């Protein structure tokens, strides 16, 4: 099991990464150093019907995730919906996922640890660590995997929050720019401009953000807006 200096170095390096993707890639690198982990993947859940492989160290891991979606069974899925951690020392002989295990073992993925990625309020996906050997895991490996999963959870949660704030800010800016165009073109105030945008959005069944974005990109379209009487 890695000592405290390993985790201290890891925390510093992860904090220095600029994006979620970079952070997750570094987490996987550290996991491969710390455990008998030959390959790894991160599966994110966007909705009950949409799962995304955010990271896969090789094609076998990508295939493993695809098979779980197709067969609706496997440790990576169960870690999201069931218990927080699933461990198998021999996926081919594991009766919990017979169809998935039979197909993934020939790909060279023989042992797996899957750990949930989550915050207090949301489940984001799973961190999945694989070994090419059966019965690869040693005492303490699951605890180490949990540490990596906590770091990955923080990275994903922070990214979701920052992305949400950025989208909200971008939307406000776009709508403000679109209001400015209408105010200048038709000599109206901000409230009247927003009313026009809202009316056209409803009439055309277009989201307000999309309408504003189109107006900002194509200023000549402002002439197509009919002011309410």
UniProtKB/TrEMBL annotation:
Keywords (A to Z) from UniProt: Kinase, Transcription, Transcription regulation, Transferase
Residue span, ANTAR domain: 155-216
SUPFAM superfamilies membership: CheY-like, GAF domain-like
PROSITE patterns the record matches: ANTAR
Keyword rRNA-binding in record: no
Pfam families for this protein: ANTAR, GAF_2
Top-level division of the source organism's lineage: Bacteria
Name of this protein: GAF and ANTAR domain-containing protein
Gene source species: Aeromicrobium alkaliterrae
Phylogenetic placement of the source organism: Bacteria, Bacillati, Actinomycetota, Actinomycetes, Propionibacteriales
């Amino acid at each position: 099991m890695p000592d405290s200096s390993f985790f201290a170095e890891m925390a510093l390096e992860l904090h220095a990464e600029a994006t979620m993707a970079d952070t997750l890639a570094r987490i996987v690198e550290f996991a491969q150093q710390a455990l008998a982990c030959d390959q790894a993947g991160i599966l994110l859940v966007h909705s009950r019907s949409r799962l995304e492989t955010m990271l896969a160290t090789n094609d076998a891991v990508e295939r493993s995730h695809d098979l779980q979606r197709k067969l609706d069974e496997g440790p990576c899925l169960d870690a999201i919906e069931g218990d927080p951690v699933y461990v198998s020392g021999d996926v081919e002989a594991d009766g919990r996922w017979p169809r998935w295990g039979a197909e993934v073992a020939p790909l060279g993925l023989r042992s797996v640890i899957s750990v949930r990625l989550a915050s207090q309020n949301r489940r984001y996906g799973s961190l999945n660590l694989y070994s090419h050997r059966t019965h690869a895991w040693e005492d303490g490996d699951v605890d180490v995997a949990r540490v990596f999963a906590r770091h990955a959870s923080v990275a994903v949660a922070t990214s979701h929050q920052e992305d949400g704030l950025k989208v909200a800010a971008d939307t406000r800016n776009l709508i403000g720019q679109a209001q400015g165009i209408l105010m200048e073109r038709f000599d109206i105030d901000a409230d009247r401009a927003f009313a026009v945008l809202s009316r056209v959005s409803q009439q055309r069944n277009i989201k307000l953000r999309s309408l504003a974005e189109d107006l900002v990109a194509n200023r000549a379209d402002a002439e197509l807006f009919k002011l309410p009487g």
